[in-house]
Amino acid sequence: MNQNPTHGGFLWPHLAKFLSLRSSHPAQSEFRHLTLDSAFGGAWVALMQFNLLPSVLLVTMLSVDKIAVGASGAGVIDLRKSPTQNLRAIADRKGVYVEDLTVIILNRPRHEKLIAEVRSSGARIKLIGDGDVSAAIATCFIETGVDVLMGIGGAPEGVIAAAALRCCGGDMQGKLAFRNEKEIERARKMGIGDPNKIYTVEEMAKGPVLFAATGVTSGDFLKGVRFFKGGAATQSVVMRSKSHTIRYLETTHFFEHKPNFAL
After folding, report:
1. Eight-class DSSP state of 229
2. SS3 147
3. For residue 76, how many C-alpha atoms fall within 13 Å in the half-sphere facing its CB?
4. What's the CA angle centered on 24, arms 23 and 30, to 5 degrees?
5. Of 16, 81, 104, 251, whose CB count within 10 A is highest?
6. Mind listing the pLDDT tens digit for each residue in 149-182?
């Protein structure tokens, strides 16, 4: 089957941080996590059958300027247009005012101009410290109160978010955000001919897609790990692009029956 399993990237960064904080040897823990990062990156490239764009994004760890919406805003976003123009198009598609929209943005200095423009448009803003994968997914669920994701974030996270949006009927566009000429040259050597190309959600996550994630810290999308004496409870989600099926799993773990489990 030509399917793209996308799972570890959503869970791993949070889990790595959690394990490092609890480790009695933080330096050794970080070295182990860097090794696993490399292994995960190589595994994803192989699992995606060496698809050019996501493979380049994962290997080079570039940044991507992206805009993402749920199904109710699909088909009207365009990164070539200004944030204000995109917000008006999304509001028209949803049948609401721009003032009714909530835009989720990573709270970074690079987003000062974006934040100022969104505020001047009248839309509401929700600033987050990290987690733009879950933020992109949140646009697909009305109960989160999030309509749009805007701004620059990690390229690997962009690929993972695109996979999830494919499963939810959402829409996304991305454009590589190079920091210098060296990054442009490196991307060209790896097969990216046009550094200014805008990629669609289908180009970032091609073919049939399976997406799975488990929450580590609680957010708009999933509950975090809840510990109790002798075990823990987790919440996970599994989604499929072909059927748009979304399944949630509530799991209880008992550590005494998992002798190889260790923090």
Report:
1. T
2. coil
3. 19
4. 50
5. 104
6. 999 988 888 888 999 999 999 999 999 888 888 8
Confidence (pTM): 0.76
Tell me which amino acid residue 201 is. V
pLDDT score, position 52:
46
236, 212 contact by CB (below 8 A): yes
For residue 234, pLDDT beyond 90:
yes
Residues in Cβ contact with 49 at an 8 Å cutoff, skipping those fewer than 6 apart = 2
For residue 198, what are the β-bridge partners? 175
Structure tokens at 1: 């089957």
Q: Which of 238, 229, 231, 235 is nearest to 251 (CA)?
A: 235
CA 251 to chain CA centroid, Å, is 23
pLDDT confidence of residue 32 = 54
Contacts with 85 (C-beta within 8 Å, 6 or more apart), sequence order: 78
Cβ–Cβ < 8 Å for 215, 223 = yes
- Residue 245, pLDDT above cutoff 50: yes
Q: Any bridge partners for residue 250, and if so which?
A: 235
| Other residues' Cβ atoms within 10 Å of the Cβ of residue 40 | 15
Domains of the chain: 60-208 (3.40.190.90)
User: Can you give the pLDDT at residue 86?
Assistant: 98
